[in-house]
Each structure stands twice: as structure tokens, then as C-alpha cells.
Amino acid sequence: MKIYFTASIVGKKHYLSNYLRIVDYLKNKGNQVISDHIINTTEDKIRMEDKNERVKFQRTLEDWITSSDVMIAETSFPSISVGYEISLAANRGKPILILYSEGDPPSLLAHHFDDKIICEKYSPDNLEDILEDFLNFAQGAADTRFTFFITSRLALYLENISKKKKIPKSVYLRYLIEKDIAKKK
Question: pTM of the full predicted structure?
Fold first, then answer.
């Protein structure tokens, strides 16, 4: 699978180890990951580019997004550029995983309802599970995506269980359903 990875270049000061962990996991799973424009670029390098270089890079970036199967965005550090790239990918119908490691989800994306945009808070304990679930979803291995509304009381409970068991909420819910099915057999 061809994956376009994006994140804040400025945010590398705080989150580079997270970026590298995400990219390394994806590559170790045999995916082609476009990430050098984030991992190997600096603010100074971008500042030194002239207009022609920036326009050329913009076209390259759009080609990368268009040719990718999916996008994964690490959004713990706010970035207008990353938001723009997410918008481009969404307009092209790409499945998008938006990751953040602390605080609240990105404010402009938290309540965006699109079956192909998934926003997940991650920790070192559940990152690989979230990435694996997303890759399965994007490859069509997930049978059906099911979305429903729950009360804030249930959401809090689910969040606490997820943290306690160190698993994504979706994994816990699938476990409960499978356990119930097994009881009925």
C-alpha cells in the first residue's frame, strides 16, 4: 500500500520520535511511505526556497497525495499546511487517519462526518493497534464500518476502558460483540 504521511515540520521539535515510530511501523509492514518531505526537511530549508521551488513542491505534493492509497496525518502540533493536505486528500476520496497524542482532537476535524476520515487519540501503548486497524479498514479487510451515537456517560466509560486495557475503543467493542456471539452458540 502507498501511504502519504504528513505532520507539522515545526512540530518535529516535540514529536519527531512519534513521527518516526509511525513511519517505521508502516514501512516494517511492507508499505511504501512518502514521508521524507516531513522527516528530512527543516524550517530553514523551506524558508530559503524561492517561489518557483515552492510551486514545484506544491505540484509534487499534490501528485503524492493523488497517487497514494491513504493518508496518515500526525496532528498533535497544529499546522495549517497539514490541514490543507488533509483537505486535498479528502477531496480525492482518500481514506485518512488523523492521529493526535494529547489534548483534544484537531478542532476543525473533530466533528467532520466522513466515513473515510478517522480521528484517533493515540499513546505508545495503542499506536500500533490503531495503525493496524486503519490499514485493515483501508484495504477493505474490515467488513463494515459502523458508526453510532452514544451518551457522554458511555463515551467516558469506553474511554476509561480503552486506557485501562490499552486498546482502541473499536477493538474493545468488537471483543464484546464476539464474546456475546460466542455465548449464544
Answer: 0.73
